[in-house]
UniProtKB/TrEMBL annotation:
First-to-last residue of the parent protein present: 1 to 239 of 348
One example GO MF annotation: ATP hydrolysis activity
Keyword set, alphabetical order: ATP-binding, Nucleotide-binding, Sugar transport, Transport
Tree of life domain: Bacteria
Name of the protein described by the UniProt record: Multiple sugar transport system ATP-binding protein
GO biological process: carbohydrate transport
Domain annotation ABC transporter: ranges: 4-235
Stretch forming the signal peptide: none
One GO term describing the cellular component: ATP-binding cassette (ABC) transporter complex, substrate-binding subunit-containing
Source organism: Aquisalimonas asiatica
Length: 239
């Protein structure tokens, strides 16, 4: 697991649209940190900058004490799970999960061990020979998480991973994610616009609004002592 440190981050897109003016955030090592905020407030952009999929305009990013601001995504000790599962339709579940290991030329024995470990953790053992089209939405999402797990990242980045699932499956997968966090030695940064997800999964919630952080705190702190009207209306207790 690894700490993530964002210092003076600015993000301005080409058309001079500044979506994040100046953001500072320390994500505690091993925490389950949830970024919440309305659509368009910059959550995905922030996650993509941590992943290295989007360059920062200003500022620096440290992961595990190392400055990775100019480091390729594949060398950042992170793995990202997207809302759209981005599985390869023509490959089996097993091939989808160990694709990255094959790319990295991981020896077959080690690859097999990591694949089986991920399958066991995610309850996918009986589905390894299926194709994505033969899976439910929840199963596909578990495959997408499996693809991240085999790399043993210090930091998992999730961008609204449950938003394509129906309500019942969302609840079930949420519980599985919480268990997974307990079993893996990893820091999780999880983006959602769903207050319930944030309140039940997080040990730390970061409330964002229009590219800025409104408040950082435990679910209970935000609920009981929201510091701004925005936090109160988004997550706070009704009063
Ligand atoms: P969220 O994930 O919180 O819904 P995003 O990070 O996707 O928000 O988007 C934040 C803002 O940045 C939005 O106004 C969006 O239109 C803008 N944005 C995102 N990506 C790009 C891009 N590649 N080019 C220009 N503007 C973008
Ligand atoms: Mg988004």
């Amino acid at each position: 697991m690894a700490e993530v440190n964002l210092r003076d981050i600015e993000k301005t897109f080409r058309d001079n649209l500044t979506v994040i003016p100046d953001l500072n955030l320390r994500v505690r090592e091993g925490s389950f940190t949830v970024l919440v905020g309305p659509s368009g407030c910059g959550k995905s952009t922030l996650l993509r900058m941590i992943a290295g999929l989007e360059p920062v305009t200003q500022g620096s990013i440290e992961i595990g004490g190392r400055d990775v601001t100019d480091v390729e995504p594949s060398n950042r000790d992170i793995a990202m799970v997207f809302q759209s599962y981005a599985l390869f339709p023509h490959m089996t579940v097993a091939r989808n999960i160990d694709f990255g290991l094959r790319l990295a030329k991981t020896p077959a024995a080690e690859r097999e061990a990591k694949l089986m470990e991920a399958a066991r953790l995610l309850n996918l053992e009986d589905l390894l020979d299926r194709k994505p089209a033969e899976l439910s939405g929840g199963q596909r999402q578990r495959v997408a998480i499996g693809r991240a797990i085999v790399h043993n990242p210090g930091v998992f980045l999730f961008d609204e991973p449950l938003s394509n699932l129906d309500a019942a499956l969302r609840t079930k997968t949420r519980v599985e994610l919480a268990e997974l966090h307990h079993r893996l030695d990893a820091t999780m940064i999880y983006v959602t616009h769903d207050q319930i997800e944030a309140m039940t999964l997080a040990d730390c919630i970061v409330v964002m609004n229009a590219g800025r952080i409104e408040q950082v705190g435990s679910p209970m702190t935000l609920y009981k002592r929201p510091e701004t009207r925005f936090v109160a209306s988004f997550i706070g207790s009704p009063r």
